[in-house]
Design brief:
It is an enzyme of class 1 (oxidoreductase). This protein is mainly beta. It is built from six helices and 24 strands. It binds ligand MTE and molybdenum atom.
Length: 393
């Protein structure tokens, strides 16, 4: 593709913030410290988790960079950056969460395969760009279309990076055409993150953002869009990012029995305390994030200071000065909610958080019940141990 290249080695990686915890150097996978994460509603770009499957692509000529749109449509089109910028611009605040968030904790129950992540493979950003629904209208697909006349039912996004899992081919994924053409689904071709041009790690010059869906479908460094009849047959749709029951292991797995994971379930995490933390007796502020997929709001966040026997309701916020109400017009429907509660902790105990979304979905109590061989979607109750030390002891 003119204007952009996918390198085959790691000699042209961008600079990165020194406080990121690196989970894999090549491909580069890193997350911020949890204490930094919940301190701002909008995650700074530098600290936003970076999840890659190959070397970061290099743009050598932005004027020539374009996205090929083809497949089951009348006439193919080359979409240049100037065409994207000509469409109405939307700023959508959306939380991106990797399906592997909290994988390390799941692997403590039983071994799983995949990059280890603590609780920060998640971030909330303001994504600026054109709606995919407007882009598809340019090639003659009207809003709210489930199927094109020639039988197109899915929209496939193909990148330019070289991934081992694809035998050196590019990263790709698809979403249903009905979602892609629904303006309310807010699927973007984004060129900005927090008001600045996307940086290389996050998909410069253009990436897809599919709000409410696991990060894996938000393809970075977009190279082409195909309108296709069946969902994308790529590795990351068919042989990865699927949810299996605990009874399935590598010796009896049949990938075709499960659908690719799309929406993520309700999640919450305490960010103000480490897994095991020593504190002084007295008042402690417990804070963190809660989020659900599919645009469902957070109805409640419960915190326990006795290992889950009794619960207190935490306060929730998004924007300062605006009360958060789940599924209210004033709330950012695709974005996380920060929670906070101050409690008195006199002795060593287990602190737990769990959230309830606006469909009354709850997080599972035990990680064993949702263990799966790829270690995805660990949304079990988040537990941290506090050791209370008395200075006169
Ligand atoms: N082209 C491309 N797009 C990609 C990936 C990738 O490796 N290559 N990783 C996906 C995964 S698994 C996640 S979680 C998000 C991470 O986006 P971020 O690095 O901007 O946080 O990008 C997705 N899009
Ligand atoms: Mo991911």
């Amino acid at each position: 593709m003119p204007g952009i290249k996918g390198p085959s080695d790691y000699s042209q990686e961008p600079p990165r913030h020194p406080s990121l915890q690196i989970n894999s150097k090549v491909p580069f996978n890193a997350e911020p410290p949890r204490s930094a994460l919940a301190s701002s509603y909008v995650t700074p770009v530098d600290l936003f988790y970076k999840r890659n499957h190959g070397p970061i692509p290099v743009v050598d000529d932005i004027e020539r960079y374009c996205v090929d749109i083809c497949g089951l449509i009348g006439t193919p089109k080359k979409l240049y950056m100037r065409d994207v910028r000509m469409l109405p611009k939307y700023d959508v605040t959306a939380t991106l969460q990797c399906a592997g968030n909290r994988r390390t904790a799941m692997s403590k129950t039983r071994k799983v395969r995949g990059v280890g992540w603590d609780v920060s493979a998640i971030g909330n950003a303001v994504w600026g760009g054109a709606k995919l629904a407007d882009v598809l209208e340019l090639i003659g697909i009207p809003k709210l279309t489930c199927s094109t006349q020639s039988g197109g039912k899915h929209v496939e996004f193909v990148s330019i990076d070289k991934c081992k899992e694809e035998n050196g081919g590019p990263y790709k994924a698809s979403i249903p055409l009905s979602q892609a053409t629904n303006p309310e689904a807010d699927v973007l071709l984004a060129y900005e993150m927090n008001g600045e041009p996307l940086n290389r790690d996050h998909g410069y010059p253009l990436r897809v953002i599919v709000p409410g869906v696991i990060g894996a479908r938000s393809v970075k460094w977009l190279d082409s869009i195909y309108i296709i009849a069946e969902e994308c047959q790529g590795f990351f749709m068919q042989k990865d990012y699927k949810m299996f029951p605990p009874s399935v292991d590598w010796d009896n797995i049949n990938w075709s029995t499960r659908r690719p994971q799309m929406d993520f379930p309700v999640q919450s995490v305490i960010c103000s305390l480490e897994d095991v933390q020593s504190i002084k007796p007295g008042k402690v502020t417990i804070s963190g994030y809660a989020v659900s997929g599919g645009g469902r709001g957070i109805e409640r966040v419960d915190v326990s200071i006795d290992g889950g026997k009794t619960w207190l309701e935490a306060s929730r916020s998004q924007k300062t000065g605006v009360p958060y109400i789940a599924d209210h017009v004033s709330s950012d429907k695709w974005a996380w909610v920060l929670f906070e509660v101050t409690v008195d902790i006199p002795y060593s105990t287990e602190i737990v958080a769990k959230a309830v979304d606006s469909a009354a979905n709850v997080q599972p109590e035990n990680v064993q019940d949702i263990w799966n061989l790829r270690g995805i979607l660990n949304t079990s109750w988040h537990r941290v141990q506090v050791r209370v030390g008395h200075s006169n002891m």
